Structures are given as C-alpha cells and as structure tokens.
Amino acid sequence: MTSNSPKLVDGMGRTIVNLRISVTDRCNFRCTYCMPADNVEFMERSNLLTFEEIHRIVTVVSKLGINRIRLTGGEPLMRKDLPSLIKMINEVEGINDIAMTTNAYFLKDQAQSLLDAGLKRLNVSLDALDPEKFRDVNRRDCLQSVLDGLDTARKVGFKSIKINAVAVRNFSETEIMGLIEMGRSEGFEIRFIEFMPLDSDKVWERDKVLFGHEIVDLIKEKFELVPVDNSLEIGPASEYTFADGKGKIGIITAVSNPFCDHCNRIRMTADGKLRTCLFSENEHNLKDLIRNGATDASIAEAIQQAVLIKEPGHKINLDDFKQPDRAMHAIGG
Asked: d(Cα 228, Cα 184) in Å, to the nearest integer?
C-alpha cells in the first residue's frame, strides 16, 4: 500500500471517506419517525464525547482518508457552543467538507456564527409545509421558526442548503409539490427519504413507506425531470434536475432500492460508539479507548478493523432484519 492509497477500505472494497458525528441525542422536537412523544431517556452528559475528544477522533480518521464530516444529533444545535467544535474540525488537515443536519429551529440565531466557523453545508429536516401536518409529525407547533431559520441561513450566505423530507404514505403526497416549489424559488435542493424502521415506537411497516418511484411519478405529472448521471456514486440520493434548469431534487430509496453498494460512510454516536451501518447490530467503543489512554495508532487500528467487517448492506427487505436497539435520535441522523 502506497502512502496515497485509501486506508479505510472494507471487505466489499468500498472506500470510506465520510464520518457522521452525533454531538448529542437531545432534541427539541419529537418527530414520530424518530422519538417517542415523552419520557425520553437521554445520555448522561458525562458520557458524551468532549469537543477535544471529537477533535482527536477527527484527526485520527483524517489520516485514514476521511475527508468529509457531518455533524448530527438529536438536534446538534442543542450542543452548547457548537461553532467552537466546527472551528476545531476545520483546522484538521485533510478535512475539506463540514456539513450539519438540523431541524433549523435555532438557525435564525446561529447561522452566521456557524458559517463563520467553517460550516460548509446544511441539511434541514422538514417534512411538511402545512402547519397542521408539521405539528402532527414533529409534535411541535413551530413551523414559522423553522422557515425563519432557513431564510436566515440562505441570507447569510450558505451556498448549499438541502431539505430532507421523510416520505410516509398517506401523509407526504400532499406536501411534495409545495416543498418542490419552495426549493425552486429559494434555491434549496429538496430530498425525499423513504421512511425507514428507526422509530423508537417501533411501529414501522413497509406499507407506510411512500416509495421513491412513486414520488418521481407524482413530480413528473407537473415537471420534466432529467436524471443526474452517476449521482449514487457520490452520495445516497438519486438526483434529478428540472428540464427548465431551475433546481434539483434527490430521492433516497433506502428501502425500495438500497444504495449499500456505494456506501462510503461510517457513524459515531454522541457517546463515542462507532457504527459501520445505520442499522448495525454491533458498536465499537472509541470513547473507552480514548479515556483509557489508547494511542492514536491503537484508535486508528480499531477503526480500520471495524471498517473491515462493515456490513455488506442493511437487511430491511430480508426476513432476518432486526431494527436497531437505538432509535434514530440516539444513533445520529
């Protein structure tokens, strides 16, 4: 292996370049596909990785070929002083992209400081523009705060803002066109994500999934779409541009047509557990390594060994599929 060879390659030959880091499992929303309505047990704060510990992990993985970091939660902006962490990550050699997934509630007050710290891209979770439907799915009545946050992020200068909408049958059909119209007018890329079995209430059923091809068919009733070549080789979404040149959408078919063959990511939970798949049944404890005095070389080796046995793919469509013990908010979006 030469010095320029990828150092994080799994058993399927996939090169890992993307690390998603959850900074908290706490959230101010209670989305039905993610968290229970109440009585949520959050991690003890002492179990969360410190910013210095996260920075150390990022420094280690940057030398293994990881060049893209995404901060997630819970709601990452509930972690105090997050711009400080972004600045620390931004100074790590080899990291050339820092993104964040957020519900946008706090963006109005924090967008400028996040941009100044070095955050490059935003993915905003927004499933409905109808106030009642927004309240139904998020169990919160604050749609305007989310829209204000999005508007502020656009105005301060974020060049890449994507809207992530979970596609649920008998819910999302009436929201699709409104989201697309907003994206086309405001410059946001709208991405529809098939509803996955990550809800803490464990009520997911395949019949509740609005499939990607159905979403595309609905959109084609009004707009001509042009597929983007090889988009799945870059990220999880099958992308389309509008034939009139105004905007782009993405369809993430995690259930009906998984993109596992092209997966280039791993995840770390807020309490420092490495997960090589969103649906992993196993976790690798990096926090214990750090707090027990492991060297950077030992941490790097542990990550390499975990990646080597990364799952070929999730098993949502197989009889032996098991829903993860952790709900989405505790894994990291």
From this structure: 17
Strands 121-125 and 160-167: parallel
Q: How far is CA 44 from CA 24, 48, 190, 315, in A?
A: 10, 7, 35, 31
Give 309: exposed, middle or buried? Use CB within 10 Å, 0-12, 13-18, 19+: exposed
Q: What are 188-215's pLDDT values in tens digits?
A: 999 999 998 766 666 778 899 999 999 9
Cα–Cα distance, 118 to 121 (Å, whole number)? 9
**What residues form DSSP beta bridges with 162?**
123, 189
State which H helix or E strand residue 150 sits in.
helix 143-156
CA distance 111 to 159: 12
**List of domains in the chain:** 18-331 (3.20.20.70)
- Which residues are CB-neighbours of 230 under 8 A, at least 6 positions away? none
